[in-house]
Design brief:
Layout (H helix, E strand, L loop, with lengths): L1 H28 L6 H12 L2 H13 L10 H7 L9 H15 L7
Helix pairs in contact: 1-5, 2-3, 3-5
Length: 110
């Protein structure tokens, strides 16, 4: 019985975080010419590890700055620096976790 409750709560939490990602990140990035997965690969090239990538993304979403952007100067001059996220820290962390799970390459390459 306890296992069923834990499983149900875990599934509910994953749906909530997927909604935060879908409703906030994906919807906003639809307006940009660069697809959302390209940002992931830029972070992957610059930071390489899960912990560092997530930390950099969360930090940038909370405190966006030219110095911490992974985008090219050309991209920044065209689109500018992102506005500070209106999501709570927990929502940002959930969205970044969902984003990581969706695009991570570790364990998928053969």
């Amino acid at each position: 019985m306890v296992k069923k409750i834990v499983l149900t709560l875990t599934l509910m939490a994953s749906f909530v975080s997927a909604d935060v990602y879908q409703e906030n990140c994906v919807e906003c990035h639809k307006t940009l010419r660069v697809s959302i997965d390209k940002y992931f690969y830029k972070y992957l090239l610059m930071y390489s590890g899960e912990r560092d990538i997530k930390y950099a993304m969360i930090n940038y979403l909370q405190y966006p700055a030219y110095e911490t952007s992974v985008m090219s100067d050309e991209f920044i001059s065209k689109y500018g620096i992102k506005q500070k996220s209106r999501l709570s820290k927990q929502e940002i962390e959930e969205a970044v976790d969902t984003y990581w799970e969706k695009y991570k390459v570790f364990g998928k390459l053969k």
